[in-house]
Amino acid sequence: MSTINAHTAPQYTGPLLPEVDVVVIGGGIIGVCSAYYLAKLGQSVMLCEKGIVGGEQSSRNWGWVRQHGRDEAELPIMMESNRLWQGLAAEVGEDLGFRQHGILYLASTEKKLSRRETWINLAKQYELESKLLSASEVAKFTAIKNNQWCGGVLTPSDGRAEPWLAMPALARGAVKQGVCIKEHCAVRTIEQTNGQVTGVVTEHGLIKCNRAVLASGAWSSLFSGNMGIYFPQLSVRSTVVATTKVASDFKANAADEELAFRCREDGGYSLALMDLTEHMLGPKSFQYFKPFIPAMVLDWQSYKLKLKMPADFPDAWGTKTNWSEDQVSPFEKMRVLNPAPNEKAVDKIMQRARRKIPALREAEVAHSWAGMIDTMPDIVPVIDSVPSIGLNVPNGLTIASGFSGHGFGIGPGAGKLVADIVCNKPLSYELRRFRLNRFCDGSKIKLGPVF
């Protein structure tokens, strides 16, 4: 499990390259995979991480590699990502913990099962196997022989990887491809000439480049705002529990309306709540309140607001929102975003788990942690090139952020797509759904699926 915090020593302390083709800002899974595939396309790449590679949500998530329940525009990218996961361990030469045991979404009533079943029609359009299970088939699949679920929908090719194995391994794989990674190297701003990227300014100096990728997770809106880019992203806290090892025949991944659960390689379970969206209030909560209204109305019962975000978090009241290239940035004050888990949520997770899963009745909490998830108003990420001011051409900056808790599984596919965008390669996907200006061009917000 992730133990990365502000005191974790950096592993990548190499030199700051004076000039490269592309600078990637952010060392989460989207940034690392973007750098990896850019290098495979022959680009010289420098990845700058303000703290530790994989130190934030990319090593704190559930580890699901999920096609099931994706937004229709996201699904083809996720299907490609699933294919990439199948070969990545061999490519990087390390085990990523990737196993295709399937993901099962459970329903406790016929009405909820009917809602789950609508996913199957979309899956069929993309020739993705997804099937309805009866109550008896659910009992066999989960090895839980009781009558609490009336059925479920299973996508057999879905799976999971172990984030704390995968992230370091993918970073090492990127280095083998020629990527230069530097930790404790915050990017303060992007240098532009005549509206075009000419370099990035880090706390250690300037790197000349004509293209950059912003993949900074929960920090992306703060970085964008300092550049005058409207990017309505907020963050929510997610608490996860790892249990002690138990004897269980269940090896897959599942969730009902209350609890997500999966068995890990070490024999314990990873658990999280399905009905808690925890947002800590800050200035951007009010600035971006309007575009988030549809999502809040749809799922209002799960929203819990905390009155104050901790000091130096991306949207805390005292966090600077404007700075120049010669000033210390907020990214240097908070190297690793390491929120404390919600202890009440931990208790609720274990109560539900012991009630629902007989194998966990004697299990204990081995470890609990939390992460800050970067969310968008429509629950769909931004994957787009930023246009030059006053010109209808890209300025060299590509944003890939706001994956709304879905970023780990889609990481390889999204990173490969970002690399293709940056290198102006022909694209296989319709990307209008992911455009940056959809929140300010008068378009109606269309919510992605909530699973």
The helicity comes to 25-40%
Q: Shape from CA axes?
A: globular
Q: What is the structural class?
A: alpha/beta
User: How much of the residues is beta strand, in percent?
Assistant: 15-25%
CATH class of the largest domain: Alpha Beta
Number of domains: 2
Largest sheet: 8 strands, mixed
Low-confidence stretches: none
> What is the subunit organization of this protein?
single chain
CATH superfamily of the largest domain: FAD/NAD(P)-binding domain
Q: State the end-to-end distance.
A: 24 Å
What's the overall average pLDDT, rounded?
93
CATH architectural type of the largest domain: 3-Layer(bba) Sandwich
Named CATH topology of the largest domain? FAD/NAD(P)-binding domain
Q: Mind telling me the C-alpha Rg?
A: 21 Å
What's the helix count?
11
Structure in words:
The chain is of the alpha/beta class. The chain folds into 2 domains: 22-102 and 157-439, FAD/NAD(P)-binding domain (3-Layer(bba) Sandwich); 103-156, no CATH class. Helices cover 27% and strands 24% of the residues. The protein is built from 11 helices and 21 strands. The protein has helices at 29-40, 75-92, 110-125, 135-142, 163-176, 220-226, 283-287, 289-298, 330-333, 343-356, 407-422, and strands at 22-25, 45-48, 64-65, 103-107, 131-134, 151-155, 159-160, 180-182, 187-193, 196-202, 205-208, 211-214, 234-243, 253-255, 259-263, 269-273, 277-280, 303-306, 365-375, 382-387, 394-401. The chain has an 8-stranded mixed β-sheet. Strands 8-2-1-12-21-20 form a 6-stranded mixed β-sheet, with helices on one face. The protein has a 3-stranded antiparallel β-sheet with strand order 9-10-11, with no helix packed on it. Strand 1 (22-25), helix 1 (29-40) and strand 2 form a beta-alpha-beta unit. Helix 1 (29-40) runs parallel beside helix 5 (163-176), helix 1 packs parallel to helix 11 (407-422) and helix 2 crosses helix 11. It is globular and about 65 Å long. The two termini are 24 Å apart. The model has no long low-confidence stretch (mean pLDDT 93).
